[in-house]
Structures are given as C-alpha cells and as structure tokens.
User: Fold these one by one.
Assistant:
Number 1:
Amino acid sequence: MNKQNRLDELLSYKILDTPPEKTLDEFVEIAATICDTPIALISILDEKRQWFKAKIGLDVTETPIEDSFCQYTLYSPDSIMVINDALADKRFVNNPLVVGDPHIRFYAGAPLVTPEGNVLGTICTIDKKPKEITERQKKALCLLSIKIMDHFNASNYISKQKKIISKTANRLRHITDHLPGAIFEFEMNANGKMSMPFVSHGIFKLYPSLDTNTEVITPEMIFQAIHPDDLPKVVQSIESSFQTLNTYVVEFRVMKNNESIEWHKVIASPERKKNGTVWYGTVQNITNQLEYENTLEQMAFDISHVLRRPVSTLLGLTNIIEKDKAIDPAKLKKYVSFIKTVSEELDAFTRQLNKAYKMKKRLSDTLRF
C-alpha cells in the first residue's frame, strides 16, 4: 500500500484539526461502553502524528506517530488489532504511552478504511490494566469503524458537492450579471404581498438610482422608477397574470436620473405555488429597439409617400417626350432640366435613406450585444 497515496487521500477528507462533532463523540462513548474501557478514541494519523478527532477519558489532542499503537494498523485494513497487555509485547514495552501517562496496558483498534483501501486511523479503546475482549466486542468495534467511515465519506461527498455547487453558482452569477438587462424571480402571495427573491446584477444598470450596496431589491424600489402614468398598467398586468397564469408581458417608461425617458420591457412566466405565484423572467431596455422600429416605420412612410411625387413627375415627363413627335432642342433642353431637378431630389433622398440604414445597423448591433 502506497504511503503517499494514503496521505493524499487523508488530506482530501479534510478531517485533521477540525472541531469536535456530536455524532463522533457519541461513537467513542459507545466504543468505551462496549469494551468497558475508560478511554476511547477516533485517532487519525498523518505523516508525523496521531490526532484525536473524538475522545473520551483522555486530555491530550495528539501524540507523535512513532509512539502510537494505531500506526501498526495502517497497512492491515482487514483486521482489528488487539493488545491484551502492552508490557508483554516487545513493540510497546518501552513505549512512552505505556511506561508513562496514560499507562496503556490494553488496546483494541479497528481501522478506518476508505473505499480506496487506505487506512486513515482507528476507532480504538484503551485501558490501564490488561484485559481481553470477546469476538462480539471485536465485531462491534469493526461495525463502529464502518459507521464512522460512512460519516466521513458522507461529509467528504457533501463538501465536494458544495464546492461544485458554489463553483457552478458563481459561474451562473457571472453569466447572468453580464447578460443584457436583468434576470429575476418575482413572487406574490394570495394577499398581494410582493417580493424579489433573486435579481441579477444587471438591475443596477437598468435602474442607476438603486444603491449597488443594497442586498435586497424589492418590487417597490422598481416601481418608484416607473413613469407614474405607466405604473397602473404595470400593476394591472401583474394582477392579470396572477389570476390567469398567462405570460406576463408589459412595456413601460422609466424616469432616469437626468429626467430622460427610457422604455423597458418585462417578459415573465408564472408558476403557481402553494402560497401564491412566482414569475421567472427578464427585464430589458428596449429604447433602442423602439427607435429602430420607428426608423423603419419612417423609412416605409418616406418610400411610399416622399418618392411618389418625383417618380410621378419623371413618369409624366417621359410620357410627354414619347408623345411629342416634333420635339425641338429648346423643349428637349427644358425637359432635361426638369429631369435633372427631379433626379437631384431623388439622389438627395437616397442619401438620406443610406444614412438611415447606417443608423439601423448601429441600432441592430446594439440590440444584438
């Protein structure tokens, strides 16, 4: 069995130097009761020491590993170690823990074995006088060692899952905080009380009047920024979605700090809960989108109305020229002058259209990112 592999796995459990745990304190009390000994320990062994995660009947928290009885279990994961009389065993006859405090004479230790087969330490019982224990007592110690490892494995698994969850949560938070607009969770109970259990950091960009140090964002804070003329519409939309469970969609104006106006849009899907309704949705600044739509409408109007007059004029002039069988140079020059004037009007207008299309592209890029 590889020593470094054992130490690496021990460190992965993060047991060393952790506070006492009630469950493990109860395990050592059970072990002492089963074997009728004054001392019982959960001993964890690293490279230089044995450290006691739980103990009864002993004041010290650790001893050097070279003095430990438990070191002999590290490479015997399948068997319990029992020393009936330490003074009769040449390995321990001069051991400081035998000839000195706590004067160990009896020792029984069941190894704490990981799923990888490494021994982290033992659940052991100690007496200051020689004694023997039965096979049933040995089996009970082994069962306790299994239960202790179940506890360590479960704690280790939970700790790893917490790290994964925390890492995932941080990643999601980073993503949501950099999305355009804001993502939110909004709740309303049957009495009409509203709350926002979650809202992404983007809310502070949408509503600069909010204090970025505010830990809890409330619906009332958002309502204060909504244009007074639009607030009744917003509240009515919430109540309607609450009653019908239809998707909540509403557009409204927002007063900025400099008294300018922005348009925001909320889309949220409701879900009925035991004590009310919860919405999961987004709020976006659609000011640029509305400007884009207005630009398109204006372009459509200009194309259908403004172009009508010059196009009609050109058609009329070409029709006259076609019908005039005896057109003289003076008349032709006059017609050409008219055509040039109308063409210049069309050229100027197409330049304006080109300018509008460029603005459209900028707005489209803004909306995309």
Number 2:
Amino acid sequence: MDLLLASTPAPDAAAGGFDLIGIILWPLKWAVEAVLVAWHWFFTAVGLPPADGITWVLSIVGLVIVVRSALIPLFVKQIKSQRKMMEIAPELRKVQEKYKGKRDQLSREAMSRETMALYKKHGTTPVSSCLPLLVQMPIFFALFSVLNDVTKHYQLGIGGVGLLNAELTAEFYNAKLFGVASLHETLIDAVNTGNTAAIAILATLVVLMIASQFFTQLQIISKNLSPEAKTGQAYQMQKIMLWVLPFAFVFSGVFFPLGVVIYWFVSNLWTMGQQFLVIREMPTPGSDAAKAREERLARKGKAIDASGKVVPMEKYVAEQQRLYEEAERARAAAPKRQQPVGKQRAKKQGQKQQGQKATPGDASEDPAGTAS
C-alpha cells in the first residue's frame, strides 16, 4: 500500500514541463517499474539484501523472464510467418523476374500489387517475422528511461512514475554490482570518473551483448535457411545486417546504463536458447538443420512423414511404398496425351499411311500379277 501511495500520477510531474516522449512511454515505464519492484520484493523476501546490487540485477533478469514469456505467442506467430515466407519465395521471385528491368511507375505499382496479393493470399507479411523485436523495443526504451531517470529522481528525492518510490529509488541508485559498478552507470560515466573496475565490467558485458546478438543472427542464416532462401535478396540483406548490427551496438552500447546492458544480454541468451530449440526440433524444410534432424531420427529408427509427424521408420517406408504404388496406378490409368504435330509432318504421315494401305491388296498396280 505504501508503494501505491508513493507512486506519481503523471509522467515527470515532479520535474515539470511537457515531455512528449515521457507521456508516450509512461504506461510502459509504469509496467517496467511494477515488475522490477515485484521481483525486488520477492528476492528481498527470500533473504537477499534490499540495497544490494545482485538483488536488483536479479530483478532485471526477472523482468526479462516476464517480457519474453509474454512474447512467446508472438514468437510462435513469427515462426509460422517465416515458414510461409519460405513457401512463397519461388512465387515472389517469379513476380520480380516478371518486372525485372522495368523502372516505370506503372510497372512498379503492378509489382507492388501482385506482391501484396501474394502476402494476403498466404496470410503473411515480412513485418510479421519482426514482431517480437518491434514489441520488445518500446519496453527496452522504457527500461532505459527508468534507469536514466534514477540519478535525477534520487537527487530530487522523489520516486519514478509508478511503484518505484523514493526509498526504492535511493536503494537502486546506491546499489553496486560486485560493489563497484552502479546499475545506472554507463561506460562513458565510468571512463569519466576513472572507475577502472566498472570500466572492465561494463566493457565485458557490452562485448558479450554484441557477441550474443551476432550469434543469434548467425544461427538463423547458417543453419535454418533452405537453399532457395539463400538465393534471394532478403538473404543478402540478412548477411549485411549480421555485420552491421554489431558495429551499431559498439557505438551505442557505451551509452547504455549497466542495467540496460544486463537486460539486453540476458534477453539475447533467452533468444539463443529459444532459437536453438526451434532450429533443432522445428527446422525450416530443406535447411541444414532439417537434414541434421532427419539424420538424428534415422539413427533412432524414426522418420518424418508427409504431415510433419515423427513416425517409426517401418511405418514411414510402408507409407512411401503405398504412395509410390498409387502414383504408378494413376499414371497407368491416365489417358496418353497425343503429342502435337505440325502441318507438314501430319501431311507426310497421312500420305505414308495411305500408301501402306494401298500396296498389299492392289493387284492392278502389281506388274507381276498382270503377267500371271
């Protein structure tokens, strides 16, 4: 109850002024503070010191667990969308080839219409595969804003926008990881203050954050793409982003508070584990991961049937034999298609057939018959 009474009713009300970004982020900041405070209460209840850095670090880890668990339905939708995008890749390439080299406005509009029609027909869009990231980014900025405001709110003796009251804000401000690095401190701050231990911790975590981000992208393009997907323009863009994103984080990571770096690194670890399970158990058909899964199942005497279910090898072989026999019977029963013949060839064939019919029974044209 004390926490509820201590919360502020409006964004930056104590600081005054009009802050559009603060107003937009206010609901998310309130939710982020509520989750952090709830986990802090839990860890304090089990015996951890309330003002210790590890208590607040574990609270940030708890925030990652809550956010990523809530995003699981979107992640499932992302996987399904990626599968559908793989299925329509050949059709998309046909549309691109159809309008290749055409730069006029009408051709571009027609290409766009046909592409959107394909997306609508199959119930997918390229944006669907980015939904988890798009949803997570506002939460990331909200956490960044909460941690960025800690110093200002501590100096003013006030709390945040929600359950992070003045007392908890002071605890958070004074909390240090390993007793040397504040959670609101950035790498730039550590360099300016000459805090060598904090510089080492922050630099290490920024490198780990970048490495984990790189590896999560590498997992996808190296193992979970079919040969067809590796020939498209989207694949080339993924390869470029694989190297561009780490450089972007090198320059932006130095401005992230330690708490944000921890959040992003733990979130990347979650993504790596999640992708590992998906790539191992539900790989893209035709990809290297799919072939590896088929080999693992074959060693266990199992296989994947046409519906995607794992079945015993004997049942799989019997099913394949049945499908083959059905196809052979259908081929034998199908009427044979007569090949089209040109006019000149048809005329020659007709003359040849007439000659063959007339020769055997026509005695008047046989000199030997006349003599007899």
